TrEMBL record, chain A:
Annotated InterPro entries: CheB_C (IPR035909), Sig_transdc_resp-reg_Me-estase (IPR000673)
PANTHER family: PROTEIN-GLUTAMATE METHYLESTERASE/PROTEIN-GLUTAMINE GLUTAMINASE, PROTEIN-GLUTAMATE METHYLESTERASE_PROTEIN-GLUTAMINE GLUTAMINASE
Pfam families named among the record's database cross-references: CheB_methylest
SUPFAM superfamilies: Methylesterase CheB, C-terminal domain
Protein name: protein-glutamate methylesterase
Keywords in alphabetical order: Chemotaxis, Hydrolase
Catalytic residue positions: 18, 45, 138
EC number: 3.1.1.61
Domain CheB-type methylesterase positions: 6-193
Known catalytic reactions: [protein]-L-glutamate 5-O-methyl ester + H2O = L-glutamyl-[protein] + methanol + H(+)
Class in the EC hierarchy, top level: hydrolase
Claim: Hydrolase is one of the keywords in the record: yes
Automatic annotation (TrEMBL), chain B:
GO biological process terms held by the UniProt record: methylation
Pfam families referenced in this protein's UniProt entry, alphabetically: CheR (PF01739), CheR_N (PF03705)
Domain of life assignment: Bacteria
Name of the protein: Chemotaxis protein methyltransferase CheR
InterPro entries in alphabetical order: Bact_Chemotaxis_MeTrfase, CheR_C, CheR_MeTrfase, CheR_N, SAM-dependent_MTases_sf
Length: 193, 269
């Protein structure tokens, strides 16, 4: 395993995306080696169906355990967590998840901003925020919060995104550390370039 | 952005001055709510926000109302309501009298949904729905049985998915962008304030619904509320929670058996 680079144990990678982001995850997840030294939290805009199809779809792509979050689950290294439909996802100081069904933010629940800001508050410099394809401005404020808390900011290269708007907004306002295409993102998360 | 210590100060004020105890609410969400109010109400500093909360009791009402999340829907999670029809109401049908408690009922959408299920199962005449919440304002709205027209289309779709076979609009009359639900439903409802943090059991019930309330509490407060519910549930009665909540890992778990895949348990022990 690569030891250099940004990802060391206890790091948390939080990934947000909307339209066109599932395709990216379906390429990224198979490339992640199990056991995973860090944890991954995925926050996607999705239809508010309460079914677990998306979690099932993602878990088919990796040997790493994928869990759709239930109230008070504890975030552990080596796991991939998925925000459930129709709730905001937040993280407590003790590393447990909280769910919240308050008003939509950026027309979205879960909102990427809400999850990113809360994670930035708790994990500070140990957090890497990744924003993928999408047609909504959600996520940018979250990336700014991650940056301010000392974490790292990664944005999908807009030309490689199915919908460029979301990463474009982020690049304009959040001063990303990396702007990457999908192979670049895979390389960063697997070898820590 | 509010600091942790400032959150503590505010929460202590609320306990000391008004007896509202939010100290065992899930912090991350609470903090976000306070930040939201800080910017919505344009306080230039934390000190000013705190002063207002401490000195203006009208503002306090708004503050508590906005600190808690009151978002709700009719027939939210239709498959849950379907399970209520097929698993719970059938089991309760033989009872001479049915008592239901909606704890944290918000503006009443869940209570009206339940009343419709009971009516369709021919049980409403012998049922009583106790609906409680911390906030007097939401209860006042619920009591009126008047709701905005906008979401009715969505509610009607939810209703059909829950196994409803009628035209949803038979249950209300529409006027000027609002709908008023039938008094036949409202007559069976009793609304009252009740704080799950500090108030006690007040009756024995056949079914308690407490959906999307416990997600706002920490584990210790959840445990208190589960004990309160356990004390308020008769033999073979039912407990219903929100889609992401569970009694697993709680001290009452052993006495309850989950029904199917919905967040529904029956008291068996
Ligand atoms: C998100 S709403 C849930 C409404 C409905 N049960 C549903 O699932 O659609 C949560 C409600 O819980 C109420 N609540 C919060 N803390 C409470 C407490 N300590 N005691 C009673 N109700 C409380 C809030 O006022 C709010 O109306």
């Amino acid at each position: 395993m690569a030891e250099s680079g940004v990802i060391v144990p206890n790091k948390v990678v939080i990934i947000g995306g909307s339209t066109g982001s599932i395709e990216v995850l379906l390429q990224l997840l198979p490339a992640l080696q199990s056991p995973l030294a860090f944890s991954v939290v995925i926050v996607l805009h999705r239809k508010n169906t309460a079914d677990s199809t998306l979690a099932n779809l993602l878990s088919l792509k990796t040997a790493i355990p994928v869990k759709e979050v239930d109230d008070k689950d504890i975030l552990q290294p080596g796991h991939i967590y998925l925000a459930p439909a129709d709730y905001h996802l937040l993280i407590e100081l003790d590393g447990s998840f909280s769910l919240d069904d308050s008003e939509k933010v950026n027309y979205s629940r879960p909102s990427i901003d809400v999850a990113f800001e809360s994670a930035a508050d708790v994990f500070g410099p140990a957090l890497i925020g990744v924003l993928l394809s999408g047609a909504n401005a959600d996520g940018t404020n979250g990336l700014i919060a991650i940056k301010q808390a000392g974490g790292q900011v990664v944005v999908q290269q807009p030309e490689t995104a199915q919908v460029a708007f979301m990463p474009q907004q982020a690049i304009l306002r959040s001063q990303p550390d990396y702007i990457l295409d999908v192979p670049g993102l895979i390389a960063l998360l697997t070898t820590g370039i | 952005m509010i600091e942790e210590e400032e959150v503590d100060l505010l929460l202590n004020d609320l306990v000391d001055l008004y007896g509202y105890d939010f100290t065992h609410y899930a912090r991350a969400s609470l903090k976000r709510r306070i930040n939201r109010l800080w910017s919505l109400d344009r306080f230039p500093s934390f000190a000013e926000l705190r002063y207002r909360v401490r000195s203006d009791s009208d503002y306090l009402k708004r503050f508590v109302e906005e600190l808690t999340v009151n978002v709700t829907e009719m027939f939210r999670d239709p498959l849950f309501y379907k399970a209520l029809r097929t698993e719970v109401l059938t089991a309760l049908a033989a009872k001479p009298f049915i008592r239901v408690w909606h704890a944290g009922c918000s503006t009443g959408e869940e209570v009206f949904s339940m009343a419709i299920l009971l009516k369709e199962a021919n049980l409403l005449h012998k049922s009583l729905l106790y609906a409680t919440d911390l906030n007097p304002e939401v209860l006042e709205a619920a009591r009126n049985g008047i709701f905005a027209m906008g979401p009715m289309k969505q509610y009607s779709e939810n209703y059909i998915l829950s196994g409803g076979i009628h035209d949803f609009s038979i249950y209300y009359t529409a006027q000027y962008g609002y709908v008023k639900f039938d008094e036949e439903l409202t007559r069976k409802m009793v609304f009252s304030t009740h704080n799950l943090v500090s108030d006690r059991s007040f009756n024995e019930f056949d079914l308690i619904l407490c959906r999307n309330v416990l997600i706002y509490f920490d584990k210790a407060l959840q445990e208190r509320v589960f004990t309160l519910f356990d004390e308020s549930l008769g033999p073979l009665s039912f407990l219903a929670l929100g889609a992401k909540e569970t009694i697993k890992f709680s001290s009452i778990q052993a006495k309850y058996k989950q029904i199917g895949s919905e967040k529904l348990w029956r008291k068996v022990g």
